[in-house]
């Protein structure tokens, strides 16, 4: 009997070791690539009777890839729209037209028409779509001035064959320039309660204006000739899930500066020349450390003290005023930039207090730390207290360099030695 038991042990071991393969080698959820239609851009527009017009931009995987030579005449994507009660029902309805199964696994961008964004319906539509596991929370949110369907049809970037690449590259540019905020579904749901949420603002319609400050534009106002039709600059402002206004590129940069921790740390911008006001000086501004925010909720009104460290590098000096070797001129330049930044910042803060009656600077996180419990913080009502808060902003400005030249070159005049 003992010998028979010893022979059974190896058999049991082999049998037990094969059980995991029953779960690891299955093909229950397999899906062939050629059977999938990958939606890379989703558009949402307002329709009648609380319905929504959903636009799908479906990528053609054979165009723009390494094997793209097999389909040289095919378009890079297909754009199709449906009117339904929500996104998921429109997705199901699309399968009556599209022969492949629609897949949101590669969805990176959602375009919202401004008309829809200004209604309560938008939040109901976007919140109900999260039940689909394919809707990822890192998906970018962009508000278009025109209808989202018109925006998607008009956006034909010349340098990018595949449509999703355009938005992927623009996402990096937003972080580099600070012209637009970094906005996605996750940040939207985080900032639904009272505080302002900033979304990327864009358009393909042009209403060109010329401003001395190259960042003081909204989308469509940039004086552009030829090139891609899309302009993305500034922010769409959301409060309680509804768009309530917009910011220029300049105001968006200020909002990012005022946050304790921001993704953008380097900007290039021009300022009036304090010695010769006919010209502007172009500088690179860097923020070496975090913005320091101190909030006193014990006082009435509440006090907010903000210190923003700024380091400056002079890039361009068209007036040829001697700043590199003249300490008096350097002092004038530093003072002028400091006063300019502080005035623009205080004007913008006043606008948020009076017009939006809330703040997009994430200061509520600092105010919340001054209370022991969440009920105490909620009873304090930071949103209401912010409207009358006394805010003091100080830019700690330091000029690091004036370029490689020690002194700006001047033109020799006839008769000069």
UniProtKB/TrEMBL annotation:
Per UniProt, residues of the Spore germination protein N-terminal domain are: 30-195
Subcellular localization, per the record? Membrane
What PROSITE patterns does the record point to? Answer: PROKAR_LIPOPROTEIN
Give the main localization category. Answer: membrane
Keywords for the protein's UniProt record, in alphabetical order: Germination, Lipoprotein, Membrane, Palmitate, Signal
Q: Look up and give the membrane topology term.
A: Lipid-anchor
| Any Gene Ontology biological process | spore germination
Superkingdom per UniProt = Bacteria
What Pfam families does its record include? Spore_GerAC (PF05504), Spore_GerAC_N (PF25198)
InterPro entries on file: GerAC_N, Spore_GerAC-like, Spore_GerAC-like_C, Spore_GerAC_C_sf
Q: Which Gene3D superfamilies match?
A: Nutrient germinant receptor protein C, domain 3 (3.30.300.210)
CC annotations in GO: membrane
- Provide the Spore germination GerAC-like C-terminal domain boundaries: 234-403
What the record says about family reads:
Belongs to the GerABKC lipoprotein family.
Q: What is this protein called?
A: Ger(X)C family spore germination protein
């Amino acid at each position: 009997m003992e010998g028979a038991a010893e022979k059974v042990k190896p058999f049991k071991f082999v049998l037990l070791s094969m059980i995991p393969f029953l779960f690891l080698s299955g093909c229950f959820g397999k899906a062939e690539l050629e059977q999938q239609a990958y939606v890379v851009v989703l558009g949402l527009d307002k329709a009648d009777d609380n319905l929504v017009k959903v636009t799908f931009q479906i990528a053609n995987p054979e165009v723009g890839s390494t094997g793209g030579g097999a389909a040289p005449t095919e378009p890079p994507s297909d754009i199709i729209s449906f009117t339904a009660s929500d996104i998921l029902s429109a997705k199901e309805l699309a399968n009556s037209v599209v022969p492949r199964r629609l897949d949101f696994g590669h969805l990176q961008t959602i375009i919202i028409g401004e008309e829809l964004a200004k209604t309560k319906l938008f939040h109901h539509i976007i919140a109900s779509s999260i039940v689909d596991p394919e809707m990822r929370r890192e998906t970018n949110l962009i508000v278009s001035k025109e209808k989202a369907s018109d925006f998607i049809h008009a956006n034909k970037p010349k340098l990018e064959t595949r449509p999703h690449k355009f938005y992927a590259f623009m996402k990096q540019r937003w972080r580099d320039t600070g012209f637009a905020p970094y906005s996605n579904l996750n940040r939207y749901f985080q900032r639904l309660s009272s505080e302002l949420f900033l979304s990327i603002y864009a358009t393909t319609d042009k209403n060109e204006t010329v401003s001395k400050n190259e960042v003081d534009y909204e989308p469509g106002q940039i004086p552009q000739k030829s090139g891609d039709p899309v302009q993305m600059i500034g922010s769409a402002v959301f409060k309680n899930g509804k768009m309530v206004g917009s910011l220029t590129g300049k105001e968006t940069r200020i909002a990012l500066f005022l946050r304790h921790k921001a993704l953008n740390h380097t900007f290039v911008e021009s300022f009036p020349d304090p010695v010769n006001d006919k010209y502007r000086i172009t500088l690179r501004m860097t923020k070496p450390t975090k913005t320091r925010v101190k909030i006193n909720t014990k006082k009435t009104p509440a006090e907010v003290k903000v210190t923003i460290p700024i380091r400056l590098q002079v890039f361009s000096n068209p007036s040829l005023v001697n700043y590199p070797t003249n300490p008096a001129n350097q002092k004038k330049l530093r003072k002028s930039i400091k006063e300019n930044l502080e005035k623009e910042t205080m004007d913008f803060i006043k606008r948020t207090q009076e017009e939006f009656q809330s703040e997009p600077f994430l200061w509520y996180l600092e105010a919340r730390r001054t209370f022991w419990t969440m009920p105490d913080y909620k009873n304090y009502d930071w949103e209401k207290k912010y409207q009358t808060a006394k805010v003091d902003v100080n830019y700690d400005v330091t000029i690091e360099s004036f370029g490689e030249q020690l002194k700006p070159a001047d033109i020799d005049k006839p008769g000069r030695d």
